[in-house]
């Protein structure tokens, strides 16, 4: 959602933004729940923008034909995680998923959703943004509770002791 908020600042408001979310665990996947909360936050901070959360549901067992093709496209292609990341990016780039007619989740029985194919020609990939900006949920919770200074100390310790797995970037 960080990338989407930054894009909102740069893009003419008359253009809509499609947010693509790929889930291998269905509607209750943590990333799907976070995406729904994130799009609601984006709608609050940028109400004049047209935001569409495109929910792409996938099961690796149903993607046997695509798996070989995707594996031939990605590098490295050595691990199961390489495949998961590659297939998620491939599915997102296709842009085929479900969009809700309203702003609530597809789990709402009163909410109608429809098949949608994003016409976007540019895909900005924000995977890993939380890790790169040290933006895990615990950080957001501390910030909202008014413990910002302590939060900065915590982030510093997070990096000092290498808890970020070597893939973190902090923008102060």
From TrEMBL:
<dbReference type="GO" id="GO:0006529">
    <property type="term" value="P:asparagine biosynthetic process"/>
</dbReference>
<dbReference type="InterPro" id="IPR014729">
    <property type="entry name" value="Rossmann-like_a/b/a_fold"/>
</dbReference>
<keyword id="KW-0315">Glutamine amidotransferase</keyword>
<protein>
    <recommendedName>
        <fullName>Asparagine synthetase domain-containing protein</fullName>
    </recommendedName>
</protein>
<keyword id="KW-0061">Asparagine biosynthesis</keyword>
<dbReference type="InterPro" id="IPR001962">
    <property type="entry name" value="Asn_synthase"/>
</dbReference>
<dbReference type="InterPro" id="IPR051857">
    <property type="entry name" value="Asn_synthetase_domain"/>
</dbReference>
<dbReference type="GO" id="GO:0004066">
    <property type="term" value="F:asparagine synthase (glutamine-hydrolyzing) activity"/>
</dbReference>
<keyword id="KW-0028">Amino-acid biosynthesis</keyword>
């Amino acid at each position: 959602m960080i990338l989407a908020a930054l894009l909102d600042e740069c893009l003419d408001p008359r253009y809509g933004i499609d947010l693509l979310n790929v889930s291998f665990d269905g509607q209750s996947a943590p990333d799907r729940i976070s995406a729904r909360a994130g799009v609601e936050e984006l709608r609050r901070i940028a109400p004049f923008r047209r935001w569409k959360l495109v929910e792409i549901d996938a099961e690796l067992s149903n993607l046997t034909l695509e798996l070989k093709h995707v594996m031939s496209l990605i590098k490295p292609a050595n691990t199961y995680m390489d495949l998961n990341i590659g297939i998620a990016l491939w599915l997102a780039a296709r842009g085929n998923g479900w969009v809700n007619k309203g702003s609530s989740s597809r789990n709402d029985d009163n909410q109608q959703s429809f098949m949608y194919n994003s016409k976007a020609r540019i895909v900005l990939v924000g995977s890993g943004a939380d890790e790169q900006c040290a933006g895990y949920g615990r950080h957001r919770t501390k910030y909202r509770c008014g413990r910002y200074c302590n939060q900065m100390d915590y982030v510093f310790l997070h990096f000092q002791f290498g808890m970020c797995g070597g893939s973190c970037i902090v923008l102060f």
